[in-house]
Write a structure and sequence with these properties.
Elements: H1 3-10, H2 24-27, E1 30-31, E2 35-39, E3 42-46, E4 54-58, E5 61-64, E6 67-68, H3 73-113, H4 119-142, H5 152-182, H6 186-210, H7 215-219, H8 222-231, E7 247-248
Antiparallel strand pairs: 1-7, 2-3, 3-4, 4-5, 5-6
Helix pairs in contact: 1-3, 3-4, 3-6, 3-8, 4-5, 5-6
Length: 250
């Protein structure tokens, strides 16, 4: 469901300003074309197209594109259960996100440890990483909408974090290379350039590998996501269209 986009931020790569995720569509085979916003007593699903573009679920009631949808008693009960179980699932998703943030931060720190940075740069890097991670944890905890974590909003935040960390590492490595070159150690200067290149080109693959530790946590969510998909089966939106808030690919 919309949890794909929630999970993306949890796997935020704290360098290069890009995003990665253990995608629910791969692990649980779950997809959705909707974004999700949590409001008091309501779940709001929205998308650009096709209709219905806005679905509101609240306490056994259903509204699609501004029209109240008549429901029988069974469908009311199923939608009420759908709402309760989805709300119960959100904190569990956020736990995985928070762990993904921690894994990303640890990976950046481990990569930095391999660069033999000076003590001052290491200390400043640790300070910035801790600050950025704390801010990200706070944003995840407070977020009530997947709109917070895709498009311009996510890119802007990713670029902000990358802009905070990447120049610090680049400056320290550049200074090392310059010092080596000025001392006549051209071999060491070339080695530092190669090391910087590997950090840029190989980091994403190494991070993705380390994020495999999250796979069991994501798999544990799958039965509940599949149950959500089953609960909404057969419920119709306005004009008889299938609701299809969530699809499970076979």
């Amino acid at each position: 469901m919309c949890f794909n986009r929630l999970l993306v931020v949890g796997m935020l790569v704290l360098t290069a300003g890009s995003l990665h995720a253990q995608d629910l569509s791969q692990v649980c085979h779950a997809t959705s074309s909707y974004d999700l916003t949590l409001q008091q007593g309501q779940l709001i699903f929205d998308r650009a197209q096709p209709a219905p573009t806005r679905v509101v679920v609240g306490s056994g009631t259903l509204q699609t594109d501004g029209q109240n949808v008549p429901l029988n008693a069974e469908d009311q009960d199923r939608l009420a259960l759908f709402q309760r179980e989805l709300l119960a699932l959100v904190p569990r998703v956020k736990v995985v996100i928070h762990r993904g943030v921690d894994v990303a931060v640890q990976t950046v720190q481990q990569e930095a440890d391999s660069l033999n940075l000076d003590a001052g740069t290491q200390a400043e890097l640790q300070r910035r990483l801790a600050t950025d991670a704390a801010n990200l944890h706070q944003r995840v905890a407070a977020s009530q909408s997947t709109h917070d974590w895709h498009g311009d909003a996510a890119n802007q935040y990713a670029n902000q974090i990358a802009g905070d960390i990447a120049p610090l590492i680049a400056s320290a490595m550049g200074q090392q290379a310059l010092s080596a070159a000025m001392s006549g150690d051209l071999q060491q200067a070339a080695a530092l350039r190669d090391q910087a290149s590997d950090l840029t080109t190989g980091f994403q693959a190494r991070l993705q590998q380390r994020l495999q530790v999250l796979r069991p946590d994501i798999q544990a969510l799958c039965p509940d996501i599949q149950r959500l998909a089953a609960l909404q089966q057969g419920i119709r939106a306005s004009h008889g269209r299938p609701l299809n808030l969530l699809q499970i690919e076979q």
